[in-house]
Amino acid sequence: LLGGLALARRLGPRYAVLLAAAAAVVVLTSALKAVLGPTPLWVEWFGAKDVNFPSGHAAYAASAFGFVVVVARAAGWLEVAAAAGMVIGGMGPAALLARSHLPSDILAGYALGTAWLLVLLVYGLPWASGAPAPRPPARRRARP
């Protein structure tokens, strides 16, 4: 919330909307967890029936804090970018130490969060800055 307020104040409200969209990756991870259920290895090792794949924490860190890293670096706020990068790097090991996820859960979460972030950067940043979004190349018609 504080990050969104700071972005809105310094760069404009559209950047705050993008930060919220980056954080919304947790909705996608929750949906995937509901569909996939607990992984067999999770049930075998821990006897747990709670869902674990993919890691929502890792996806959130990669997407939301990744967005902060990109925007902070572009704005010259290197200390903020470094702090956000440390959160990203520390989220996976913290989840492993807490035994709340398997390494595969964390890697899948990081991958999902990074993919979500890339979509936001490609299509969201131009919107936030007022530049036109990239368009797909025109298709060539096949000649008969």
What does this structure look like?
By secondary structure, the chain is mainly alpha-helical. 74% of the residues lie in helices and 0% in strands. It has seven helices and no strands. Helix 5 (56-75) runs antiparallel to helix 6 and helix 5 packs parallel to helix 7 (103-129). The protein starts with a helix and ends in a 15-residue tail after the last helix.
Average of the residue pLDDT scores: 88
Number of helices: 7
> What does the overall shape look like?
flat
Percentage of residues in DSSP E strands: under 5%
Summarize the structure.
The chain has 144 residues and is mostly helical. It has 7 helices and no strands.
Descriptive keywords:
144 residues; mainly alpha; single chain
Summarize the helices and strands and which ones pair or pack.
Layout: H1 2-10, H2 13-23, H3 25-36, H4 40-46, H5 56-75, H6 78-97, H7 103-129
